[in-house]
Amino acid sequence: MSGNTGMEQLIPIVNKLQDAFTQLGVHMQLDLPQIAVVGGQSAGKSSVLENFVGRDFLPRGSGIVTRRPLILQLINSTAEYAEFLHCKGKKFVDFDEVRREIEAETDRVTGSNKGISNVPINLRVYSPNVLNLTLIDLPGLTKVPIGDQPPDIEQQIRAMILQFITKDNSLILAVTPANTDLANSDALKLSKEVDPAGIRTIGVITKLDLMDEGTDARDILENKLLPLRRGYIGVVNRSQKDIEGRKDIKAALAAERKFFLSHPSYRHIADRLGTPYLQRVLNQQLTNHIRDTLPGLRDKLQ
């Protein structure tokens, strides 16, 4: 599955720190090693995270759905259930209930007018399908206020994302749909501001199956177009129709695998594409990243 077991224990330790800071309300002061997920509004961030878990559990809809940072701690375990830091001791086994709880808890802090707040929701998901991994899901970048959103919603979201990704210890998962021009990617534009050399940014390209016929993203995935030190990984998520029709995530992962193996432009790199590969890479990179940043973190904690 993954490397050194001693190293594997690092992620749960950082999770505990993260919970403690959220409860104390000092979550922004200490620079914890973490992976922040950044992308435009319908880039496919939610689908990537749900595919890791193998369950539908994130709120969906139009407009800004993620309005508070969601610290998602995935923990490999034989049983499958979820827990929220704000509902101590309650085990959620129904993932529809998890979604409703995220919505209710978001409204509790932000009100129901689609405003945003940087107070995180901490959610742990225990499952045999996940590798130990902690991700922070951030609101999608938006351009135009909807309904009674504040007119400066774009600046607010930008400021919140920057708060998480400016820190040297955070890895940035920049999610960009393949059917838009990479040069206009909101996620890459923002990550470039704080990580100009592309050292801590991991590119994820979604919607590869929706590209115009005759076009492909081969140059991007081979890291030739806008190179990142950690490269790009392509994934194929379920379509809106699949989600509404409740297409099983296992079936979706099989379809994704088949897509890469049978596509003339991607066959040769199929073993470095897809959701399971992305999950392994992130687990490995987060573990290495925590190992590298631990000495500095220890000094700060003391």
From TrEMBL:
Its EC number is 3.6.5.5. One of its GO terms (cellular component) is cytoplasm. It comes from the Eukaryota. PROSITE patterns: G_DYNAMIN_1 (PS00410), G_DYNAMIN_2 (PS51718). The keyword Aminoacyl-tRNA synthetase does not apply. Residues 29-295 form the Dynamin-type G domain. GO terms for biological process: receptor internalization; synaptic vesicle budding from presynaptic endocytic zone membrane. Signal peptide: none annotated. GO terms for molecular function: GTP binding; GTPase activity; microtubule binding. Keywords: Endocytosis, GTP-binding, Hydrolase, Microtubule, Motor protein, Nucleotide-binding. InterPro entries: Dynamin, Dynamin_GTPase, Dynamin_GTPase_CS, Dynamin_N, Dynamin_stalk, G_DYNAMIN_dom, P-loop_NTPase. It is an enzyme of class 3 (hydrolase). Belongs to the TRAFAC class dynamin-like GTPase superfamily. Dynamin/Fzo/YdjA family. This is dynamin GTPase. It comes from Cryptotermes secundus.
